[in-house]
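Async update (no meeting this week)

Hi team, since we skipped the sync, here's where things stand on the single-chain job. The sequence we agreed to prioritize is pasted below, unchanged from the tracker. I ran it this morning and attached the output directly underneath so nobody has to dig for it. Comments welcome in thread, and please keep replies under the output.
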Amino acid sequence: MARSVTEIVKASLKTGIDIDDANSRAGKVLNETFNSIMQQDGCQRIHKGIQVENPSILQLHIDWDSIDSHKKFTRQLYYALSEEHMLSILDGPMDVSHANLTVHPLSSSLNPDAASVVEVVGHYFSAGLSDSDKSSFESNLDQFAKVLEDEASGYKGFLGGWVVEELDHPKVEGKAKLWQSLIGWESVDAHMAFRETEAFKSNVHLMRPDSNKALTMHHVRFETI
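Output:
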């Protein structure tokens, strides 16, 4: 049975672009692009957001019923036209990957509409990470999610999963394997306040095992299209 997948798109917007102005050229380009995507077989929903720390970065999470559904879309003749349309408002190519995200077993479901902000964490490992090390890391996340549930004020939920593609990262020799964590918060301040607590300081090692070669973090305010 095919497994649902989330297409993760990150792209740098051209200077002066305001994607929230529906009447602007950029707003119209995005609206047309989203309409085209939503008409595709297998597309479930689109979450759109801007990175809080870098407002020039657009981030999209597009849920598909399988990676094959997305690949089928990319083989359509009008996909190239849609991509060209998008690139006209971007300052460079789009960074696209796919992740098998699942609701964390010890967490409430994360709905971006219910979370004012989502903490997006990238855990980079060597591509040759063993199955046992993967299982150990996932077990650590079980424990960390329980800490969030019990101790973190303003915490909304936790999604996570392995990215399908092997990626490049300057701190990883050869190819990298990425685990993507999405943690919902009422606000950036709620997340930052939790980082100052003893509960965080005593358990953050669970998110940063020795096998973790690099870590990235930013916040995104998503809305569902």
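Quick observations from my side:
Residues 131-151 form the longest helix (21 residues).
The longest strand covers residues 214-224.
Reply here if anything looks off.
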